[in-house]
Design brief:
This protein has six helices and no strands. It is mainly α. The longest helix has 47 residues. It is elongated.
């Protein structure tokens, strides 16, 4: 039994790692940046803040289906983060300042992100009492709850910091090139 448990979690962990690498590569292709996907994927490991206390609160063991829920959470988080980052980029392209673009993006996209999260959580409630899939339901319910909040707070902060740092480095590079002439 322990051998089967070990092999299951090993394989699920490997699937999770492969999924994260593939998500990273897809987001690199979409944004043509190696740093932006790191910002977008930052909340993924923090879902553990919702998943583990959720299991403890309901007295449920962390099972293979719980791990499947965490893999699904990665996709949901990335989707929400891409919505925010893409909207921020669109707002900046229209001429808004960085801070205004970020505030507007969160204000406009918060409702659709929250409604998507609520819909997924509501769907997971129907399998909460299933003996096999309750780990999946717990991971989704508590993971989405925490990840939605983290996405709406963490992504704007990280993306703001990233864009400010990139802008500062670009300004410094221009000044150094001008000085060298």
């Amino acid at each position: 039994e322990w051998q089967i448990t070990y092999e299951t979690f090993r394989d699920m962990g490997l699937a999770y790692a492969v999924g994260l690498v593939l998500i990273y590569l897809l987001v690199v292709a979409q944004f043509r940046s190696y740093a932006v996907p790191l910002v977008i994927m930052a909340p993924i490991p923090l879902t553990i803040i919702g998943v583990m206390p959720g299991h403890a609160l309901l007295g449920a063991e962390f099972t293979a289906t719980s791990m499947i829920g965490m893999i699904a959470l990665a996709g949901i988080i990335v989707r929400n983060s891409i919505l925010l980052v893409d909207f921020i980029n669109l707002e900046i392209a229209t001429g808004r300042g960085l801070a205004d673009a970020i505030v507007r993006a969160v204000a406009v996209r918060a409702r659709p992100i929250a409604l998507t999260g609520l819909a997924a959580m509501a769907g997971a409630f129907f399998i909460l009492d299933d003996p096999i899939f309750n780990g999946l339901a717990i991971s989704l319910i508590f993971g989405i709850l925490v990840s939605t909040l983290l996405t709406l707070v963490l992504i704007p902060i990280l993306y703001y910091s990233y864009l400010r740092r990139r802008s500062a480095l670009a300004s410094w590079g221009r000044a150094m090139r001008k000085r060298a002439r």
